[in-house]
Amino acid sequence: MADAYELFLEKLRKRKGLDLTGYKRPQMERRINSLMRSVKCDSYDDYLDLMDKEPQHWRKFIDTLTINVSEFYRNPPQWEVLQQKIIPMLLENSPNLKVWSAGCSTGEEPYTLAMIFAYNFPRVSVSILATDIDEEVMAKAKNGIYNEKAVANLPRLYITKYFKQEGSNYIIADEIKRKVRFQKHNLLKDVFDKNFDLILCRNVVIYFTEESKSALYKRFHESLKPGGVLFTGSTEQIFQARDIGFRLVSSFFYQKA
């Protein structure tokens, strides 16, 4: 028999179209219960009613669950490997690259990619798709305005060339914004495009169940071209990589065999 939390997830799916069944229960339940306490809701049904009546509480719910923490050039050594080893390797197979930043949050990751290509591979034709389940964070990404903390790890040459500073804000250049196409997408239920040379999914799946993660990595494998590469986060090692059909070409970089 379903307990109160499971019934809440079912009602949430029907009423709001949000399916959280692929996420780890302890973390999600802890966050949801904390939100309920903050608005003095004693039951899941009361909380659902509140989110229906007052949209700001639904907004807060989405923000809390999706954990939109991002920055440019996150984990710099991994970006250096991407620039110096992975991209040149991909270009040996194709002069034009198709790239997907999955779970792009406020846009720092796909814009980092766009800057790397613009500065280091200016003659390469690259298509960059950036997706996220949260439309509001993508709206911020499209604006392209960031604070000093967001650009702290970014090489100075990129900041100088591709940003305009206004007070404490850094505004990304239009030439970089034009290189990225943003689209709403749910990794756990929406259809995946095919024939990507490179997929980045970093610091996104840590809240997914093991079953959901395994299914997701298989779908990423199917979406890559032969020889394409999946770039994961620092805490997201794929233990069954070989069984899926990946081979490790560098730490956090998995190539479709």
TrEMBL record:
PROSITE patterns linked to this entry: CHER
Reaction equations catalysed: L-glutamyl-[protein] + S-adenosyl-L-methionine = [protein]-L-glutamate 5-O-methyl ester + S-adenosyl-L-homocysteine
Native source organism of the sequence: Thermincola potens (strain JR)
Pfam families: CheR (PF01739), CheR_N (PF03705)
Keyword Methyltransferase: yes
Alphabetized GO MF terms: protein-glutamate O-methyltransferase activity
Keywords, sorted A to Z: Methyltransferase, S-adenosyl-L-methionine, Transferase
Enzyme class: transferase
Biological process terms in GO annotation: methylation
Name used for this protein in its record: protein-glutamate O-methyltransferase
Enzyme Commission number, as recorded: 2.1.1.80
Domain of life per record: Bacteria
